[in-house]
Amino acid sequence: MKKEALFYEKLDKQKTGCRLCPHNCTISDGKVGICGVRKNTAGTLHTLIYGEVSSMAMDPIEKKPLYHFYPGSSILSIGTVGCSFRCRFCQNCNISQNPEYPTQNHTPDEIVEYALSKGSIGVAYTYSEPLIWYEYVLDVCKAAKQAGLKNVFVTNGYINKDPLSDLLQFADAFNVDLKSFSEDFYRRIIGGKLKHVLETIEEISRHPAVMLELTTLVIPGYNDSDEEMEEITGFIASLSGDIPYHLSAYYPMHHFTAPSTPVKTLERLKEITIKKLKYVYLGNVGADSNTYCHSCGSPLIERRGYSTEIQNMENGKCCKCGAGIPVIG
Length: 329
Hints:
The chain is of the alpha/beta class and about 325 residues long. Helix content is about 25%, strand content about 25%. Strand 5 and strand 6 form a beta hairpin.
């Protein structure tokens, strides 16, 4: 469905300037931006994917991954097509890099009604990049909030300040992919700029009512050095040592043939991160994913796959030593 886009300006010669993300595309009449789903039609910018759902499922919240936001709950997850990045290792390239992938149209009210019927805690915007779906996501967010549901974003964090500010009014949790701490990596492998992702993470971290977790997909030979992990850890710790951080294993996909991430690599990097961060998890390798009290070491949340059990924790505190634990829900 085509709908006039938010956050753009009309330029000379029927060109439009999209101001949704830091690409700030200048789009000629009849053309689309880098994301492939925002089109200039005679000087008016339209989103081509309003309500166009490519994927929809009830997922464990831990699958996002979010480990400190309503642990053990289930959430309706929806995605569309297109992306603001061109990650050469994309793990969901069939939808993110293919605007022609088949979709079904659903109104915001239909999404909310379905979430309520399934006992979902809310709606997660995920699978592809939800921020390019901005107009629709914002409308679903508003309807979800009115229905008492939560709004969760799994995103690359590539968004300009003003649209992010509007979205944060309705957001409850984010997991942002911090793909590397190298501008060169972002430029060559992804097609973006690291500094803008860091700005998004910093802005979200200023909202204490919004749960923020971060994820890095660790790719051998590209972003797995001790030095880069020291930099990432230092950045996260400068915001808060309480931010949960996920180190996930990469598997060959799309245009990348680098070998899968060894478990030993993730374990080595975790040893670096836990010097400054309290909650670090390894993903995609079947490792221990429990949450432990940072003060006394007591197990607080036990996870077996996507089966979750809360132990020794009440009202956000460890029952053994009374330490505060940054968990929502």
